[in-house]
Specification:
The chain has twelve helices and 13 strands. The chain is an alpha/beta fold. α11 links the parallel β6 and β7. α1 packs across α12.
């Protein structure tokens, strides 16, 4: 684990500086337990102290003004007992993913059905598929070098996206899902004959590492919020290496409402973060990607988060990161 922590320590300041520059203005958010965060530092210090800091995080204030005041205070050294507790407890990063796994593995939280995986919004599935197909049509026109042979459905659940969007367009689809319960339901849900063209991989996206130059499209829908910023960067870099020439990563996900003064919203129940569109794209740019095409999902219920579809092309090699100065730096 030492090398992981070392890499995180080196990467985090670069990423944080880049995100603040790219997002611009005030960076702030809140979570579903009522905490307010005045910066990305305070958010991830709280969530990932085991990976990003050497001491236990203090309790966070519950108002923005108090949070901003706390940010200006110098950090105090943790007491010896706190250091010992921190050293022997399970890493915060593992806890982050463990909590998310437990939430989605529960049949009570997520029945193995459209209604379950869409959180009670199964009626949106036809609209979702309609606009996803239109987006793939637009990509085929804009990027004639794009092939439709092999796709990965990342965070596949029971295979809903594969069934209605990817298998009708691609010769073979890899369904990547960390929940054994949901993945076991996928073959029957997809049905014959399409299930014969699907391959089922049990893995979390924080660890999924497909072979180099093996995929034409990596489709990532309603799941990037379960990756913390560092692992989202790592995931995108691995996906960049897995793309064939002309291949693309497509992210379709909720983003924070641009009409509200929040850069992110943290769901403490299932351990997921809804980033603003600027925040999400900035992480992708840091990982070495550029936006090729972007459409906004139409027709969803009023009051839901906006859902953009963002196609990304790799423009930098793995190991190069964007810097706040605008150039590249080796990590």
């Amino acid at each position: 684990t030492g090398s992981v922590v070392e890499a995180s320590t080196a990467l985090w300041p670069l990423l944080l500086t880049f995100l603040h520059r790219e997002i611009g203005g005030e960076v702030r958010g809140y979570d579903t337990e009522g905490r307010v965060y005045a910066s990305l530092t305070s958010l991830w210090r709280w969530e990932l102290d085991g990976e990003l800091s050497s001491g236990l995080p203090p309790p966070l204030p519950d108002t923005l003004a108090a949070a901003q005041a706390a940010e200006r205070q110098p950090a105090s050294s943790p007491a010896p007992a706190a250091v010992e507790q921190h050293a022997i407890r399970e890493s915060a990063s593992q806890a982050w993913y463990g909590d998310g796994f437990d939430y989605w593995e529960s049949e009570e939280n997520c029945p193995s059905s459209d209604q379950g995986v869409l959180g009670g919004f199964a009626h949106l599935s036809p609209l979702d598929a309609r606009d996803s197909h239109a987006f793939l049509d637009a990509l085929a026109t804009k990027c004639p070098e794009l092939r439709f042979d092999v796709a990965a459905d990342c965070g596949a659940g029971i295979g809903r996206v594969s069934k209605v969007t990817l298998l009708p367009r691609f010769g073979q689809v890899y369904l990547v899902e960390q929940s054994p319960r949901l993945l076991a339901a996928a073959p029957e849900y997809i049905g014959d004959p399409d299930a014969s063209r699907a391959r089922f991989i049990r893995a979390g996206l924080q660890e999924y590492n497909p072979p180099a130059s093996s995929l034409d499209v990596v489709w990532v829908q309603w799941v990037v919020g379960h990756l913390h910023d560092l692992d989202l960067v790592r995931f995108l870099r691995r996906m960049g290496a897995a793309l064939r020439p002309g291949g693309l990563v497509v992210i379709k996900d909720n983003v924070a409402n641009p009409e509200e003064p929040w850069t992110f919203v943290m769901d403490r129940e299932d351990r997921s973060i809804t980033r603003s569109r600027e925040y999400l794209v900035a992480v992708c740019r840091f990982a070495g990607f550029e936006v090729v095409l972007e459409h906004l999902q139409r027709g969803f219920d009023e009051g839901l988060f906006p859902v953009p579809m963002i196609a990304l092309r790799k423009v930098r090699e793995v190991g190069e990161v964007a810097t706040a100065g605008g150039g590249d730096a080796e990590l």
